Each structure stands twice: as structure tokens, then as C-alpha cells.
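Field reference: sequence -> structure
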Amino acid sequence: MNKLEKYERMAADFEQNHQLNGYHHFRRLEIVLSFLRKLGKDLIILDAGCGDGLQLDKYIKSYMAFGVDISLTRLKRAKDRVNKNIVFLGDLFKLPIKDNKFDVVILGEVIEHLEEPRVVLREIHRILKSSGYILLDTPSQSNIIDMILRLLGIEPKWGYKVDKTHLWFFKMNQVKDLLHNTGYRQVKIRGGPFIRYDLPIINHCTWVKRRWWAYRILDFTIGQLPVLRQLGAIQVFMAEKV
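Structure field:
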């Protein structure tokens, strides 16, 4: 099965309409949007691997935003959700975009699906403007629970199990190294949610919005502690193009 066939099968098997009903997806998008607000208002953004367009639908409310995806199935859904003129077909490994075009490129829950993340990070570097930014988020082993488990000699594997299409399950320093080695600097990191969303009982609460208040309290409380603020079951990374 080639790459295109694989992504089309993934698109056919999994629609993303319900995605933001999960607290972990809601929270990671909330953090991404907070980073964007700090960067300013007049941004030209690319949602790389935009999928069904759920995140892109949020970005276009405040920014000039575009989306690209390799799956025709997902692009059709994205076009039905947002203005069809802002989404287009493209392979992240060789984007049909000229150099220095975007202020920000966002990789939302994408990097863990890529066979060669370095190649894609370099391609994003190419299309970013001078001193542009990459924003990416991914499930992470660098969270409080997994760090305790490793002290007990237990290696966490949940990042592969929550989605069997995941090829990678990163630690925080692995992503930082990837960014530094592909032409980025000043890496800022924010974790959230801090508690793993795959755990029994918690997993159920994740998808019930009226129970999100417990997550909100935990995220607010832990987020006040600088030593823990970067840790999270999902981590969001923002880095500047060198």
C-alpha cells in the first residue's frame, strides 16, 4: 500500500467531526490559539495536514488561514466545512508552495503519523517567512504519570495504542532535538491536558463535556507551577525559523 492509499484508508475509517468533543483535542487547540494570539493579528497561516478542517475552521475566524492535505476524502470534508478556496491538495513531504510564504505553519496531531518527520520539518522551514514560526502538537511521554511509571521501570506505550496509525511516541526532548536539527530556535513548550486521557474512567470523562470542569481545575492548578507547565499528555511546541 502506497502513502496515498494509506491516508485515504485512514480518512475512510475515521471521520473527525467529533474530535473537538474530546477534552484533549479541545485543550491542545486552545493552547495553539493562545500562542497565535501572542504572535499578533496579521498572520498568514497554513494548517498542514488540515484533515477534515475542524481546526482550520477555528483559525479562519481570526486569521488569513489555508489548509493542505494529501487525502482527497478529507479535503472534500474540509471544503464542505470552510471556504473551498482556502484548502488544497498537497504532500507535506513536497509541498506545492513557493519559499517564504507563511508566517505560521501548524502541524496539529500530525508529526506522530509521519514516516520521516525531519523531511517535513525542513519542508515547512522552506515555506516559512524569515523569522516565521512552526506550531506543532503531539502526544507525549513527558507527562507526570509516565515519568512516575518510568521510575518504576514501566515504559509507557499508550501513545501507540490510542491510535494505531501513530508511528512515533515522542518525549519532549526528542521533539526539541528534531526542531533544533531542522533549522528552528527558541522552542517554547506548553503541556495540556496534563493528565493522560486514555486512562480508565478518565477516558470516559474526556468525551463528556459536563465533566470537563475537573480537567479545567487540574490544568489551571498544574499550569501555575513553572516546573510542570511544559509537561503534558499532549505537548504544544512553538519554534522560530532560523
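Note: The mean pLDDT is 95.
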